[in-house]
Design a protein that fits this description.
By secondary structure, this protein is an all-alpha fold. It folds into 2 domains: about 50-55 and about 180-320, no CATH class; about 80-165, no CATH class. Helices cover about 60% and strands about 0% of the residues. It is built from 15 helices and no strands. The radius of gyration is 31 Å and the shape is elongated. The mean pLDDT is about 85.
Length: about 325
């Protein structure tokens, strides 16, 4: 009796001769992942019109960044004290300089002053107190750090740099002072100002008006708008120090203040899209995104951070809140 031989059954799919190599499988996997990521990205909410209004413009290379050259202020004998007068002149140089090279010369000149800065400030304060009609507060403000030329040079460097940035964005100081599209949106939303100013409308009425305007739909867009207002005010203030030191009031338009207050409310209403957005917002808060000077010892920031933790996708607090 012949013994029948059985062939072991092979596991897996039958061979087709078209097996994919490891590299090909990796390539296809990356393509599928890219497609999934693209869909996820496309599904994220956004407001393109808000992004258009509140994206900080990039400096344009074609725009002129040349700063008009001013002549140095004339040295004058103000107090009769040679070193005090030298510091007063160097302080004026730092206030009016438009060329960083001039600031380097100011630093070199300051190094030739032998008396300590505190002594010079005391001598200047004593001279001011002897002048008729000078208030003690005037003495304090005028003499404070007046001999710290290095500090004044640093402030002047920032002023000149921001002025150059403003020119590269707007093209001129006059253009920087004109209404931006974002400001026009806010002003049109509020309409004619009532007697007594915008705050007489009340926060509820302002909230209803702004609710019908162009608003952020994500925390990233909230942060972008708040950064925009801070950037615009800073650039205008610094540009005015160079181009028109006596002609620009640095106080923010109260309509913009009302808008910022409204937008900050979204920080405790909108949930972060993911952990990355929550971390970016937390970093922005630490960097001063929200002005906490008028709040009660950081309670507002604590409320915002608590909201982030409670609404963070996948967090225990979010699950308990939804449950």
């Amino acid at each position: 009796m012949s013994q029948q031989t059985t062939t072991p059954k092979k596991r897996g799919r039958p061979a087709t001769g078209q097996a994919l190599s490891g590299a090909e499988r990796q390539r296809r996997y990356r393509e599928r992942k890219k497609a999934r990521d693209r869909v996820t990205c496309d599904e994220k909410p956004s407001n393109p019109e808000h992004q258009r209004l509140f994206t900080i413009p990039e400096p344009q290379v074609s725009q002129s960044t040349a700063i008009s050259v001013r002549t140095l202020p004339e040295q004058q004998a103000v107090t009769g004290d040679h070193e005090v007068d030298a510091c007063l002149w160097l302080r004026e140089v730092c206030k009016t300089a438009t060329d960083p090279a001039v600031l380097e010369l100011a630093l070199e000149a300051a190094q030739r002053i032998e008396a300590p800065a505190k002594e010079i400030e005391d001598r200047y304060a004593a001279w001011m107190r002897r002048q008729p009609g000078v208030h003690p507060l005037q003495v304090a403000f005028a003499s404070f750090n007046m001999a710290d030329i290095a500090h004044q040079v640093e402030r002047a460097r920032e002023r000149i740099a921001v002025y150059a940035e403003g020119l590269a964005v707007f093209g001129s100081y006059a253009a920087a002072m004109r209404e931006t599209p974002a400001e026009r949106m806010v002003f049109d939303t509020i309409g004619p100002l009532p007697d007594g100013g915008v705050w007489t409308l009340g926060k509820d009425v302002l909230g209803e008006l702004f609710a019908r305007s162009v608003n952020p739909v994500t925390l990233t867009e909230v942060a972008a708008e708040l950064r925009y207002w801070r950037w615009l005010g800073h650039v205008r203030w610094r540009m005015s120090e160079t181009a028109d030191p006596d002609g620009y009031g640095a106080d923010e338009d109260e309509r913009i203040s009302a808008r910022r207050y409204f937008v900050e409310g979204f920080l405790t209403e909108l949930a972060p899209l993911d952990r990355v957005e929550a971390l970016h917002l937390a970093d922005a808060l630490a960097d001063g995104l929200v002005d906490l000077q008028s709040t009660d010892d950081g309670a507002r920031q604590a409320k915002i951070l608590d909201h982030l933790l409670r609404t963070l996708p996948g967090s225990d607090r979010e699950r308990s809140a939804n449950g």
